[in-house]
């Protein structure tokens, strides 16, 4: 009987690279399009891009760990040379042009779209946007760091940190296949500016590059601003955000109508729901169109692990959106509202815990931006490979974390025995 250990010949890092080259032109197109600011480079930019991609695919976790595998026969066969030192990789990435990496991500998206691998959700392209803090330090800082004061009086200290806003595409799942979650782009948040300001800058750039990639943007309550709503309306896009009582007039108007109207019964998965749907509200005059407020009171039963007893939990959600009620019924709008969590669960959590994307490979503003974009590129390629190239019988019984460990083993197996620990 075949075991996961027997699958080394079925799934290897070389096979992922062959798939990326064949389908997306990774080495000859995407890698070749990335440039840096060096005038007479001794180390080819493409060699560094490929090395960093392998670092993320094998989840090595640091440039020093990559350098320890530099003499592997895997790199000599693929790159034609050993991997350069950790310092050199960091220095080259700090000089890279982010636009070239973004163009590579767009090329991957375009090919997947041509291959019909990114279907809309019932006629709507859906994306989700959110901010994420990658790290914080009291000592190390760079030109791109944000600052905040921790503590009071004599105990007050300045803390330096980086935040960025990310946009993720949420296509529907093809029949019998896994849904892809595509990381489109991110924008660093500058010191002293609000997250929504960085988000608007990101959306303006993305909408020029991906004008038809999505029709609806999902976001949390922070994005419930007239500036964000009006911008997306002007671009012909819809938005759905969590509504909280800080949007006072709209929330109070909706709450009064909730109390006066009988809810509609529904369900979302195993949850029993009571829904209120209020279209055409004019209680937010700063927005250039009427808005729609939806409330969902959801009840579910869980079994506690500690004592095995069942417990009933109730949650109360309220969203505000520009989606029309005649084409997007309440059930679909509620499902969209819950999909906002995909960027946390399948975006930030996976990137941080599985891909080491929060690790500061070099503390430089441009390097941090480029390393994260390279993580997006590597992650998108891996997800496409996992969902589109691996057959279900091969994936059966193995978590996603199994395959990177196998790829890391392939790299380490090529290290000469004299250098092996």
Overall pLDDT confidence:
91
SS element count, helices: 15
Our Rg estimate from Cα atoms comes to: 24 Å
Number of strands: 10
- The low-confidence parts are 1-10
The largest sheet, given as strand count, sense and whether it forms a barrel, is: 10 strands, mixed
Fraction of helical residues: 40-55%
How far apart the termini lie comes to 33 Å
SS-based class: alpha+beta
**Approximate strand percentage:** 15-25%
What's the order of the H and E elements? HHHHHHHEEEEHEHEHEEEEHHHHH
Quick structural overview:
Helix content is 41%, strand content 21%. It is an alpha+beta fold. The protein has a domain at 240-326.
Could you describe the 3D structure shown?
Helices cover 41% and strands 21% of the residues. The N terminus is likely disordered. It has 421 residues and is an alpha+beta fold. α3 crosses α13, α6 packs across α13 and α7 runs parallel beside α13. The chain has a domain of 87 residues. The chain has 15 helices and ten strands. The chain starts with 12 loop residues before the first helix and ends in an 8-residue tail after the last helix. Strands 1, 2, 3, 4, 5, 6, 7, 8, 9 and 10 form a ten-stranded mixed β-sheet that branches.
Keywords:
421 residues; alpha+beta; ten-stranded mixed β-sheet; 10 strands; 41% helix; disordered N terminus
């Amino acid at each position: 009987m075949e075991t996961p250990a027997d699958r080394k010949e079925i799934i290897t890092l070389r096979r992922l690279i062959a798939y990326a080259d064949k389908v997306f032109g990774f080495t000859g197109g995407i890698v070749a399009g990335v440039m840096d600011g060096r005038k007479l480079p001794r180390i080819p930019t493409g060699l560094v891009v490929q090395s960093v991609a392998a670092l993320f695919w094998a989840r090595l976790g640091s440039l020093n760990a990559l350098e320890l595998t530099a003499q592997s026969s895997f790199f000599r066969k693929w790159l034609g040379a050993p991997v350069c030192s950790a310092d050199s990789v960091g220095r080259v990435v700090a000089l890279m042009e982010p636009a070239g990496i973004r163009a590579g991500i767009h090329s991957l998206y375009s090919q997947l779209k041509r291959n019909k691998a990114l279907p809309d959700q019932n006629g709507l392209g859906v994306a989700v946007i959110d901010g994420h803090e990658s790290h914080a330090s009291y000592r190390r800082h760079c030109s791109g760091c944000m600052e905040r004061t921790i503590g009071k009086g004599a105990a007050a200290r300045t803390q330096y940190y980086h935040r960025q806003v990310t946009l993720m595409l949420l296509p529907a799942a093809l029949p019998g296949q896994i849904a892809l979650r595509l990381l489109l782009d991110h924008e660093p948040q500058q010191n002293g500016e609000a997250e929504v300001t960085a988000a608007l800058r990101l959306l303006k750039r993305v909408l020029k590059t991906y004008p038809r990639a999505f029709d609806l943007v999902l976001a949390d309550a922070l994005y419930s601003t007239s500036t964000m709503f009006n911008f997306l309306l002007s671009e012909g896009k819809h938005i759905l955000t969590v509504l909280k009582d800080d949007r006072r007039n709209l929330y109070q108007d909706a709450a009064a109508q909730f109390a006066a109207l009988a809810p509609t019964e529904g369900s979302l998965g195993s949850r029993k729901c009571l829904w209120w749907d209020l279209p055409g509200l004019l209680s937010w005059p700063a927005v250039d169109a009427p808005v729609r407020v939806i409330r969902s009171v959801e009840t579910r039963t869980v079994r506690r692990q500690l004592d095995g007893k069942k417990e009933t939990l109730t949650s109360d959600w309220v969203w505000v959106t520009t989606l029309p009620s005649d084409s997007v019924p309440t059930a679909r709008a509620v499902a969209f509202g819950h999909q906002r969590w995909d960027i946390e669960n399948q975006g930030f959590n996976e990137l941080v815990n599985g891909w080491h994307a929060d690790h500061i490979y070099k503390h430089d503003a441009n390097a941090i931006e480029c390393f994260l974009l390279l993580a997006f590129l590597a992650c998108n390629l891996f997800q496409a490979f996992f969902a589109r190239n691996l057959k279900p019988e091969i994936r059966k019984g193995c978590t996603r974390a199994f395959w990177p460990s196998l790829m890391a083993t392939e790299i380490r197996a090529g290290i000469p025995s004299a250098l092996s620990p």
